[in-house]
Amino acid sequence: MIEFLLGILNKTVEKVKELRIAIGIVTIATALAIAGLILKDQLSNLAGVIVAINMGIVLLFAILMFIAATKAKGQSAKAYQRLYFILTCVFSLILLTSAVLSLSSVFFGKPLDFSEDTATTSLIEPIFDGEYRIEESVLLFDLRQRLDLLTDAQPESKTFRHRIDRVVRQKTTTNPYKMQSGTNGDRMEGFESRTHSSMSTKEVQSSIFGSTTDHTYIHSIESDRFPISEVVNVELKATFVNSFRAEPEEWLGVCPNTDTKEITFIILFPENKRCINARAMELPTGSNEIEFRGTSKPVIHDQGRIVTWTLSNPVKGVGYYVAYQW
After folding, report:
1. Is the pLDDT reported for residue 123 higher than 60?
2. How many domains in the chain?
3. How confident is the model at residue 121 (pLDDT cuts 50, 70, 90)?
């Protein structure tokens, strides 16, 4: 079978000059495609262009093959005229489908999202060149003690948060390591660090962070508590006072002010008020809240008693939060 096909190809090459041109073109296209595959990790955009060009050239090759078959004379030509016609139709359909899907992805984000934000988030490795970086930040919110109704005997509802940061000082600096907390409730209190008892806390004007919270606090730890290039655990406990008022949908979040590799939320819900639904949201600087543009999503565990969410490489100054219904 292979010898028969090669025989047909050789006879056609000898008689039809268009086929020689087509073979030369497809050889160049194949070399470009191989080069694109080799370089795709370094030059992904170039590889995409090369693949698109290659598809067009393959279509041209099919058309030229069909022309060659049409010009060929004798009974031997009829055996492959229909084959070349079918190949031309198939490659035309593939090219047309690819063009439609590519345009849809660029302008509408379907089936693939080629937007700049998505590409930047997924392909570019962030550069952490600040004075400090956080390897991991874990925030545990315990809502199990909050009260639906306040009384004279119990005028305040309290919710507890436990935060652990794994911090690395990257440069010689005298600037302290800072963490921020905030609430739209009455206040926060009971700030305590088991690992750094010298931590200081002060309330600042919320306008510093875009008025996203009614009360904002800055916690500072002196730089000499962080040996350069060593991971140091920082623990911070705090209490929210009247911060969750039994709305059908509420939120918990954080706005990183230090380069961070990973943030994990853990939310514990009351037995009588479990989580029904949870969404990942973000609040870009100077913009309105939107659905989180990353790939991770909150996960509901144990029939709504626990919700977790982990996100990688958050952007400083952007708020990330879990909006939940309970």
Report:
1. no
2. 2
3. very low
Residues 155-175, mean pLDDT to the nearest whole number: 92
Name the residue range of residue 169's domain: 132-325
Task: Using DSSP bridges, classify how beta strands 158-169 and 231-241 pair: parallel, antiparallel or unpaired.
Answer: antiparallel
Residue 188 within a domain: yes
Flag whether 127 is in a domain: no
Distance, CA of 101 to CA of 115 (rounded, Å): 14
Tell me the per-residue pLDDT of 255-311, one tens digit each, with 9 for 90 and over.
888 999 999 999 999 998 899 999 999 988 667 788 998 999 999 999 999 999 999
Same domain (yes/no): 137, 286? yes
3-state secondary structure string across 254-302: ECCCCEECEEEEEEECCCCCCCCEEEEEEECCCCCCEECCCCCCCEEEH
Outline where 16-128 has alpha helix (H).
17-39, 44-71, 75-108, 116-123
Residues 195 and 305 both lie in one domain? yes
Three-class SS state of 149: coil
CATH code, domain carrying 189: 2.60.40
Report residue 227 as tokens. Answer: 């040996």
Say which residue the tokens 């436990």 belong to.
162
From 5, 60, 4, 65, select the one nearest 28 (Cα to Cα). Answer: 60
**Mean per-residue pLDDT of the chain:** 77
